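I need you to check the entry underneath: sequence plus fold tokens. Let me know what the token row says about the fold.

>
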Amino acid sequence: MYAQWAGILTAALFVLTIIAFIFKWGFRFRLVGVSSFMAVIAASIFGLGLGLFTRTEIPGAVRYSLVYDTGGAQTVVTVPPSITESELEATMRQVAADLYSPGRSGSGRDYMTIRVRTIVHPEPGLSQPLFLGEVRRSLATRYDEKMAIDIFPEKVATLKKYQA
């Protein structure tokens, strides 16, 4: 969308530049520079839109929020307490795909640990974090075939107690 608007603005500036040359306006040479610069900007935005941002969609994943991220090997996300075990696994795969970055440093480790939690309320006015599982994935490869997903079924089972 940004590339489209930048292209439209560039075309409008080129038309204005041609009109400026026809009527011999004094600032016509400045418009050449502005139009050329806008063409470079539009081409750059278009190029960035082609492939810099790849997003993997995992079916069945629910929304999550990033709670803690060191930019390195440890991350914590939170999910809604109404999540099921199948949604949890899909969400954990989605989080692992979303948080991969070739720029992450492992501080001596070659894997990243992502912990998934939710917040439950055992009694009114009391909130308690409940860790539902964790993912360990490689920091070196985008598509990690050896990614380890550990779901804590006893913790997921206790969620039903808090939903009633």
